[in-house]
Amino acid sequence: MTIDPKVTQAIKDGRVPDDVTAAFLSESKDAPAIAGIIFVTVLTSIVVLGRLGSRAFLIRRFGIDDTLTLMSWISYIPFVAMSIWLINMGSGRHYYYIQYVMDMDTVELSEVVDFAAHIIYTTALLFCRISGLALYYRLCKLHDGLLTSIRIVFAVLIAGYLPQLFLLIFHCNPVTGLWPYDWQPDADKYTCLQWGLVYSVNSGVSLLCDLLLFGIPIVMLRVLEMPRRRKIQLGCILLPGISVIAISIARLVLVIMGQWEADQSWAYNPMLGVEVSEIGATLIALSVPGVKPIVDRFVLRKDPSKGSTGDTRYGKQSNNSRGTALRSLNLRPEHSVLGSRDTSAEGGRANFRSANQSKDNQSETSADGILVKVDFQIKEDSPRDHSSRHVL
């Protein structure tokens, strides 16, 4: 093992106790942590920028969810840069390295950067989650029950963000960006909450928010009426975000290790990697539907601007493409927004007429950019409507 020159110098200066070896102080997990962070960041950027490009140039509709996703990504990049900076300063080395090898100016700088980075981290996650809610709102805007649920989750996200932010800002009295160790000069000037306590509470709130956010697609799949095979296909588009919940749990575990284990800082690099992955996985999960038009255009060689149904039991449709916009999918009868039997039949006839509209109208109905191949039918109460062809 190569001995860190800073460790050698600290030993020469007499700052290191005799029972702490140079080999121990030179141990580092910096390189794999930085490599993992860069990989996740590049992957996230490719998916997010692909989604934004798809929405802007293929679908040609850029909604508020896309704007929020862009804001999330813009916040994400500085957090990644600050995470790598913290690692390079030595924040993820052994606790004794921070205490005996790092100079006091670097220790204080690392504490301030950590403080600022986690304000950015918390804010970026909020933008991610609200962009997800905006996406779900756009897809479910005809379903009152789901819209109410989305509004409630939005209120919970805001209510959860504020205490997270205030805990970070006011963790010490008087207010400071430092997280002073007991051995730091002037540490007795501050009365502070424990770093691990603040981050554990914030991690718990973050986990709750992820459970609520990524529970919405499960409810959407429950109320959508379509064959099981089609639900599985749709689930592959809407449910990757469940992996974010596992990442949130991992972060909570690492925060606990970072505060209450003897070698506190040794878990810091993995925690930063998990935090970068949490934002990245959230952005990727919410961007997968928006990337699908790129796959349709350049891989499947389909025109994503056209959305129509394929063959149904009512007959062969006039178009060859069988994609349909997710927001136009039929809902289970108990959740249906079609209303009474009269409005259902009228809606079916109106939709049939809309099939003969111009290409511009077809583009409008499918412009959401989430095209799901699906064959289905409207359940009718009147026998006379069974012979009609319906296009949703």
From TrEMBL:
Q: Which residues cross the membrane?
A: 33-52, 73-95, 115-137, 149-170, 205-224, 236-256
Q: Where is this region: Disordered?
A: 305-367
**Its membrane topology:** Multi-pass membrane protein
Listed Polar residues bias regions:
306-323, 353-366
Its cellular-component GO annotations read:
membrane
Report the sequence similarity comment from the record: Belongs to the SAT4 family.
Please give the name of this protein: Rhodopsin domain-containing protein
